Structures are given as structure tokens and as C-alpha cells.
Amino acid sequence: MSAAAEQLSDAQLDEVQPLWAELLAHHSALPWPPGMRPRPLEASWADRRERYARGMAEGTAALFVVRDDAGRPTGFAAVVLHDGERPLLQSETERVGELDTIVVSEAARGSGAGTVLVSAARAWLRERDAAPMLISVRAHNDAALAFYAGLGATQAFVTLALP
To answer: Is 1 in contact with 66 (CB distance < 8 Å)?
Structure first.
């Protein structure tokens, strides 16, 4: 694995589609509330790719990737800047970040890739005077919760679903 995260350009977005597919498969294996299920891969990637590209063009989002020694992506993170859009939150700058997506391939888990990606996302937000960085985690994703707790994250909100 490379020791640093690389910021992706819009032209490179499709490089991380296989990682998106791995994330979708991982989330699909977790329990879902009644009446909810993940969207099909093609539709979910098309929507997410468009959202990433739009945010990157507007300067409100960035994507970072880590690669293996052969140059293949082994993880990516998408971070979004919210400028005064979160009325329930008050931060010193009114700018809040969100770790929109993070995935590390199963083969690269435990390599430090996730920590490198979170660090890159936080640095990008600090450069824009945004703090804190919010992180949403799928219910039942205990490994992700433990990872973020190890980085010092604490619970801020809980989202519930009614059938």
C-alpha cells in the first residue's frame, strides 16, 4: 500500500467503482430494516458518481484513494463540505465536513489504509476551516464503529427508520 492518499480528479472516478461495488456487497450482507434494501449496483454507482463529480466541480467535495504497490486502488474516501447547511449543528466556523463514503478492500483492511484516508479527508476539511467531520455508519457495522472509535470519534446522532 502507498503511504499517502492521492486526491482523485473527475476523470479518475471510475477507478474506484470496483471498491463501490465491494462496499455495496458489504452493506448488503448486513441486516436491513423492513421495507429497505440497497439499490442495484449500476444505479447506485451512476447516482453516486454524478454526485461526486458535481461536488468536485463545485469545490465542495474531494475523493482520496490509496493504492497497492501495483497502483491498483485499495481504498477510497469521499469527503463533503457543508457550509452553513446543518441548522442543528453549531461549529466555530459554521462549516462542517462529512465523510460521505469510505471503503477499504477486504484484502487491505488492517493495513492502515483507512486511517490514511480519514487523515486525508480531515486535512482537506481543515484547509477549508471546517470542523467537525461527521461520519454515518450503517447499523450493525460493528467493525466500522470500532475503527472510528479508535480514531476518537464519538456518537453525535442516531438515525432510525420506521417501516
So the answer is: yes
Angle between helices 17-28 and 41-58 (to 10 degrees): 130
- Amino acid 114 reads G
- Is residue 105 assigned to a domain? yes
For the chain, what is the domain count?
Answer: 1
Q: For residue 116, how many C-alpha atoms fall within 13 Å in the half-sphere facing its CB?
A: 22
Cα torsion angle, 14, 55, 106, 40, sign: negative
pTM for this prediction? 0.91
| Host domain of residue 134 | 6-31+38-150
Q: In this predicted model, what pLDDT tens digit does every residue of 108-156 receive, in sequence order?
A: 999 999 999 999 999 999 999 988 899 999 989 999 999 999 999 999 8
